[in-house]
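tl;dr need the bound structure. longer version: we got a ligand (SN-glycerol-3-phosphate) that a collaborator sent over and nobodys looked at where it sits. i said id run it. heres the input, straight from their email, havent touched it
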Amino acid sequence: MRIIAHRGASTKAPENTLKAFKLAFQQLSDGIEFDTHQHSEGIIAFHDKTLERTSNGKGFLLDTPLSRLKQLDVGEGESIPCLHEILDILPKDALCNIEIKHLNNVDTWVAEVKKAIEEANINEDNLLISSFNHHWLVQIRQRWPRVNIGALTATYALDPTYCARAIKATSINISIDVINADFINDAKRNGLDIYVYTVDIPEDMLKLKQWGVTGIFTNVPDVAQHVLYGN
Ligand code: G3P
Ligand code: MG
């Protein structure tokens, strides 16, 4: 079972920062998940629409020029990273889950991401694109047939894997709050990988490993390594 650091190693370092991503890999994570917005000046890692919770700025992220965003402190002196800065520190073979919180335009988004992975020499197979906005994912799939796509859901729907099948997703990325053994069997029957968020409790980690899920997103990758693999 893969251990994916949720917003980086975000308990011990500020979320969605290069510091949190580097720490995640020091803690032997198999990959990182981060939240992104397509800003008019590029794709950047940030969770919220507004700046207040995680930075010393005020107002809306997308209304703020990139030059100003770059000056903000998002904790421990870290700044908001651009996609290319994250890809530059990604170890070979690490999974890179780009969660889309906002995009302006699907065509320019796909072009920007393709250019960034090419420049950073990232293997396309190591990318996982996910979003709660399944309409965007359908449009990305039409333009990028080979890329891994994860249908994010917080719902145990009546037809639980419909969204992933309709998107032609490679995985379903589901909340720990609604997952159960029937769901896992259904997803496996449909050939889907299963990632679960956000898994910080050791008992949950062990249960999901036993159930055979593909990976977990955790804020505590060091704890997961220890509990699951004794590292
Ligand atoms: O990708 C899984 C998880 O990150 C989704 O929720 O709000 O933590 O981005 P959130
Ligand atoms: Mg996220």
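gonna send this back to them w/ a short note. The chain has a mean pLDDT of 98.
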